[in-house]
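A quick aside before the break. I want you to see a complete sequence-to-structure record at least once, exactly as it would be stored in a machine-readable document. Don't worry about memorizing anything.
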Amino acid sequence: MLIKTVKGTKDIMPNQVYRWHYVEKLFRNIAERYGYKEIRTPLFEYTELFSRGVGDTTDIVQKEMYTFNDNKGRSLSLKPEGTASAVRAFLENKIYAEPQPTKLYYETSCYRYEEPQSGRQREFHQFGVEIFGAESMLADAEIISLADEFLKECGIEELKLRINSVGCPSCREKYKSALRDYFRPHLSKLCDTCKVRFERNPMRIIDCKSPQDKELALGAPSILNYLCDDCKASFDELKENLDTLGIEYEIDPTIVRGLDYYTKTAFEFVTEKIGAQGTVCGGGRYDNLMYEIGEQDVPGVGFGLGIERLLLLMENCGVEIPEPDGMDALIVVLGEEARTIGLKLTNELRQKGLKVEMDLMERNIKGQMKHADRLGVRYAVVIGDDEILNGEAQVRDMRISEQKSVPFHRLYEELSK
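That is the input. The structure line, written in tokens, reads:
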């Protein structure tokens, strides 16, 4: 019986991987233009990192993490998102002792036990950027600007930026109290998950996907009416910065994000190009996360962006990702002596930077020429007894069906034109 991929995972085959290379290169280029440096963190961490960082009231920690004990009984979890690991690395390596801010970007695999659907897998891949050490709303505006520019460079259309402030712990407690007062008469109508959230974190009720709970949440108080003076001033400053950058936005008080670590800024880029309105990119500020994880008072802001969802969106927007060029040449050989010379020439041409293949199946000349067509090579370089005698190969341009003799020592010059 054939062993298949695990549900919620996918193979990225050679005829698709070039699309990943394309967006990876775009993301890397724009992140580095903005002054970000790459970080790579492990795929699994101690479970405590995510329960303390992401939040033990979140669906991610309660329902979706892949958690297991190692041989010494220590609880480990596959990474469900990128920020907590980046923060842990920042703290563990004492980067906070260096001049700030620290600006990081990453591409990482993440794992969540969710029901697979279009653009969402149990193993998924994420782009992310983080700024550590900057309290100014200039950092929030830069993060949003980077995401906006990247999505535009990917050719994404009909995107909307929605922003909100989720306040600080002080004003959020007043808001949570107001939410409990609002939802208390409707408590019996809430889903079982939100009945638990009612006491632990009623803000998560607003983010519930249950249709009935979403309808009940429509009349809930707005957090914008409960912001303290500092959070209100920060939100006003963010809006001014976005206006200066010419980035359009809508204020959406229902954005609370699915992670407990957010403070002040929360934002999402949304679209209807992937079916029902979906979030393409989301992020915000998390000024208390460093303290939760490592007792260092360092502010932070960042975003995460799912690559599978991005590629689906680009496809739905009709973005044409250029396919890579084919091989430069196939060395076609006839006979034992030609095979020896062809093997040496193939190696020499590769070492000089050309993409060259030699038939490994030892087909006849007709089969080798068909193989050249399948590979999409620009040139077929034919070597037989006559060519060996004359010290030259027959070079056939497969695009225009023209052929000429080229001395062996000039093959690189001819093929690299």
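Two observations worth writing down. The chain has 16 helices and 16 strands. The two ends are 50 Å apart (CA to CA). We'll return to this after the break.
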